[in-house]
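Q: I'm writing up a methods section and want to include an example of the input and output format. Could you take the sequence below and give the corresponding predicted structure tokens, formatted cleanly so I can copy it straight into the document?
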Amino acid sequence: YMFKSLFKSEPLSKEKIEREVKEVLEKMVSKQKKYYSSLHCGVRYNINYADILYVSLAIRGCEIWILSDAQAKYKCKKIYSDESIRNIYEVLNDKRFIFAHNSYFINLQHVIKSCRTEVQLKDGVNLTIARSKGEEFRERMLEYSAHKYDRKNMI
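A: Here is the clean output for your methods example:
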């Protein structure tokens, strides 16, 4: 982005260089991979947000379901966490995660298709969308899709 100015014949001002360098750095920071750290039975997992398919309730905690492409990296299909599902959701604090039901939230990044009552994720997982979550789910899905394909985010 900054390099467009370098090929112009006009001299670069200090302010223009600083502004463009700041913009490039902000873009780089926003593209950094994010990780969720989970400790269960003495084993710590650092899970890349992009590797999380969905998170569901389990007895005394949650199950973090891993995308099949990443299962070899973690050596498992799901990772148990002793934390509450609400706590994990708040720690992740990312636009790509949304509750589709009170007992699970999904990663919008891995939605293949959705209808009013159901969502299909990569790996062929089908999950029900609760009636109480339907409207919010549709709005967030549209918002996520619009943001994902926004021209500014593709640079």
